[in-house]
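Objective 1b. Sequence-to-structure analysis of BRWD3 protein.
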Amino acid sequence: VFDCKFSPDGQHFACTDSHGHLLLFGFGCNKYYEKIPDQMFFHTDYRPLIRDANNYVLDEQTQQAPHLMPPPFLVDVDGNPHPTRFQRLVPGRENCKDEQLIPQLGYVANGDGEVVEQVIGQQTNDQDESILDGMIRELQREQDLRLINEGETLPNPPLNRSHSVNGG
């Protein structure tokens, strides 16, 4: 069991495990839960993470901070995407068009020069920067200014984490 959460009223709780099982316990009918697939994973589950020179955690394939990555796709245990009606269950994908809910795979070079399979086209050009992205950028700027004012040098210039490796 990886995680367990109780409902606010204490009458239900849910658990997840490493096999993609979601166990729901409580009172009531289970008709709604019978309609979802047996196996549901995010396509980014089990991806390796690395630390950059500033000690930030990054997704190894995309070189992006995990919280700045687009919402992941729901897949089965073999990595096959679920139909679009299930992709809309992922927060951030509720109002996407059908064509945005189908993963488009491409190949990009990672930081080590290796070519890896990558989901491309996850973000549209008309998406605004999230409030969280702006807050993180501002906190980083303030920290950099504080370090400079204290006479310390920055190890590396701050990275722009809002863009993917391939310049998108």
